[in-house]
Amino acid sequence: MISALKIKQTGSRFWVDRISTTWMLAGLFFILVVPFAIFLGLLIKALPLLYDQSLWAILSGTEWSPMRGNFGFLPFIVGSVLVTVLAVCFSAPTSLMAAIYITQFAPKRFLKLVHPVIDILAGIPSVIYGVWGVLTIIPLVAGLASWFGISSTGYSILAGGIVLAVMSTPYVLNMLIEVFRSMPIGLKEASLSLGSTYWECIKHVLLRKGLSGILAAFALGVSNALGNTIAVLMVVGNRVQFPSNVFEAGYPIPALIANNYGEMMSIPLYDSALMFAALLLFVMVTFFNFASRYFIQKYEV
Amino acid sequence: MNRKSLEEQFFRRLTQLTTVLLFVVLTWIIATILYRGIPAMSWDMITKVPQGGFYFGKEGGVLNAIIGSFYLAGGATLCAIFVSLPVALFMNIHLVKYQSFLTRIRLLLDILWGVPAIVYGAFGFTLMLYFGLRASLLAGIITVAIMICPIMIRAMDEVLRTIPRGLMEASYSLGSTRTETAFKIYARKALPGLTTAVLLALGKGIGDAAAVLFTAGFTDYIPENLLQPTATLPLSIFFQLSSPIEAVRERAYAAAIILTVIILLFSLTGRGISTLYKKYSANGND
Amino acid sequence: MVMTETPIIRIRDLNVHAPDNHILKNIHLDIPKNKITVLLGPSGCGKTTLLKSLNRLTDLYPELKIKGNIYIDDDDILHPERDVSQIRQKMGLLSQRPYPLPMSIFKNVAYGLKLKGITKKDEVERRVQEYLKKAALWDEVKDRLHSSAEQLSIGQQQRLCLARGLAVNPEVILADEPTSALDPVSTQMIEHQFQELKEEYTIVLVTHMLRQARRLADYVVFIYYGKIIEHGPVNEVLDNPKEELTKKYVSAGV
């Protein structure tokens, strides 16, 4: 009786194990398939456009007039790259400095105080940052432009860059703080005992030791900025053109997709072009992420 | 003062100033939203759906968007848990022998984490067309679930990774199967961390607008079943903000406060759980 | 105890407090020149804190409160106005685990020289070679001076750290259980180096290993829970302890 019970129990335990393992495997399989599914799904939808025009013509074309079947993506690619570069130029140095101050110079209590604040800010949705951008950055940029003698509505590449920078800073900062915190204190002791000042220790030792982590944090900032939709869309102006200065409007790829999905079914090839835009964005961000990983691993000190 | 200590002083000040500047800007954001939003805040905002004339500045609220966001993010999070928890456990129990394979999975998940929400949105749209769905709560849930899965798996994975290997060996040596080790030992031990991971994904699901732009549609009503379209808070803010009427825009700021408060509640809960967890599991080495 | 030699470091009324712990209590100690002084005691008795106070690395632990005076060549290192980085260069540190700086082997040794403002290429090269030889590492690394220091074995890393410390031309070497992470062969090499180095340097060595103390020490300071129980020449303290606690520790002998 007892042994029968035991066998039965082992039997059910065995089956539970089998079923749950299968379930786990299925989940893993599902998640591994997602990136390929995204790529293929978008590619299939983009095919009509690719049959119609050569890839090179699409990527290097400068004219965007869906009604006439012209789908040149270059202005959008340029727009995306410009806002991203601006954003990283603003956020990378500021977050690095702040991370250094918070982890190296400030009293320990300060980190405990700001850590939750940073976490919370990292969680604030991008639409909120967009609202803030419209309310404060737009007039500021317009003012700055007129100070330079340029007339601008404020809705511009620069505004997009600033809003993106502010938005991605909490993420980047959080990661940088982790990088500096995970450094062994013995390394600092070693440098200081050789007679370095704190700053020399940071400059020669900590920045070097943390280089791969720091670059990874910046890369996160870049991919955040490249893909952000709503916040940029709200402040960047959305005009198909090559901006000649940062006070002019631009039109990044995500904004293109979000702005036009409503009418995409009513114009031939338009839906295909927007799906191509999504595919392009996917490829750009993924390529960037792979490349930065590879680069970081290769040059890891 | 010599050159060295001058340099030291200079950079100390510089980094300090940068930090101050950063936090001024970040508080400025919250202040701006509060300043503009509070006057437009009313009880109606959170208890009523848009009435006739809402988009001309008349009566109503954004209850449709609040409830819609909860339905959508809640549903998506539930779906994502069913995939993420097993996968994260699988990675840390069954696959723990295959480190190089694990590294590749983690890389892939990180890459997926980096894929922009709008791309998930467009992908969700292609899925929707393929399955003959229309923009609906269901389509939105599926899209957001796919989007937050990598986040949840990676966050759970990071928690599970910290569990010492010895625990697994102990569990095996008592005769547990891998499943029992996974769900009875690992999942239980890591429960607070896992909850934080879920809340992180939930917050992301609520806050994101781009993924649901194509797939969830928009409506002034609270959806009654999965196949109806649904409003979400971020989109509601976005649409109201593009209105030419001042009163409508004011209410967008109020809706922004609501969204911020919801997100704050989630992240504070998550933080609270993880500090509690740290307090009770600290072993003095930290 | 009567010290015939002139002390190089004088510690007066040193007290170190952690928030809930009085780590060092009224430490009063002279450390003689060109000798190996061993700080001996069980783990967690405050030896490491005492060592780190000597070059004010305690600054890195804001929770520690330090009172008292530590003089090296009549400079009070604990004086808040002192330029610590210069005083620290009078002391080289060897920690429990080697921490090679994230740069090449050559640059690790040259780092201290750079901080001192020595940048002439041939001068730097000459010195790097000299100190690597002193640390008995030169022959093993001379063909790969420009590869990363982190690729060395842990024993080699510790000797690199020794060379790095010597390169700033210190008077004192502070060693905090420098062999605890090393294999027996590397341990022997480090200990052998210490015997040779005491001709030119003063060495303060923290250890909890009685045998190591016996092998190396000229003077022994026995510390127990933040207090100096007994100190003096090695044969007095280890072979003829006066205090009950020291007797117990020595007879439990490792």
UniProtKB/TrEMBL annotation, chain A:
Pfam families assigned: BPD_transp_1
Listed GO MF terms: phosphate transmembrane transporter activity
CDD domains linked: TM_PBP2
Topology class, membrane: Multi-pass membrane protein
A biological-process GO annotation: phosphate ion transport
GO cellular component: plasma membrane
Major location (coarse): membrane
Domain of life, source organism: Bacteria
Domain ABC transmembrane type-1, chain residue ranges per copy: 77-292
Keyword tRNA-binding: no
Parts of the chain that traverse the membrane: 21-44, 73-106, 127-148, 154-173, 213-236, 273-296
Compartments in which it is found: Cell membrane
Keywords (A to Z) from UniProt: Cell membrane, Membrane, Phosphate transport, Transmembrane, Transmembrane helix, Transport
Protein family according to the UniProt entry: Belongs to the binding-protein-dependent transport system permease family. CysTW subfamily.
Role according to the record: Part of the binding-protein-dependent transport system for phosphate; probably responsible for the translocation of the substrate across the membrane.
Protein name stated in the entry: Phosphate transport system permease protein
Species, as recorded: Gracilimonas mengyeensis
Automatic annotation (TrEMBL), chain B:
GO biological process: phosphate ion transmembrane transport
CDD domains in the cross-refs: TM_PBP2 (cd06261)
Similarity comment: Belongs to the binding-protein-dependent transport system permease family. CysTW subfamily.
Cited PROSITE patterns: ABC_TM1
NCBIfam families assigned to the protein according to its UniProt record, in alphabetical order: 3a0107s02c (TIGR00974)
Membrane-protein topology: Multi-pass membrane protein
SUPFAM superfamilies documented for this protein: MetI-like
Alphabetized Gene3D superfamilies for the sequence: MetI-like
Transmembrane segments: 20-38, 70-95, 107-131, 137-156, 252-273
Cited Pfam families: BPD_transp_1
Domain spans labelled ABC transmembrane type-1: 66-270
Coiled-coil regions listed: none
Entry-linked InterPro entries: MetI-like, MetI-like_sf, Phosphate_PstA, Phosphate_transprt_permease
Organism annotation: Gracilimonas mengyeensis
Name of the molecule in the record: Phosphate transport system permease protein PstA
Gene Ontology MF terms: phosphate transmembrane transporter activity
Top-level division of the source organism's lineage: Bacteria
Keywords: Cell membrane, Membrane, Phosphate transport, Transmembrane, Transmembrane helix, Transport
TrEMBL record, chain C:
InterPro entries: AAA+_ATPase, ABC_transporter-like_ATP-bd, P-loop_NTPase, PstB-like
Gene Ontology cellular-component annotations: membrane
All residue ranges annotated as the ABC transporter domain in the record: 9-250
GO molecular function: ATP binding; ATP hydrolysis activity; phosphate transmembrane transporter activity
Gene Ontology terms: biological process: phosphate ion transmembrane transport
Keywords (A to Z) from UniProt: ATP-binding, Nucleotide-binding, Phosphate transport, Transport
Record PANTHER family: ABC TRANSPORTER I FAMILY MEMBER 17
Protein name: Phosphate ABC transporter ATP-binding protein, PhoT family
Organism: Gracilimonas mengyeensis
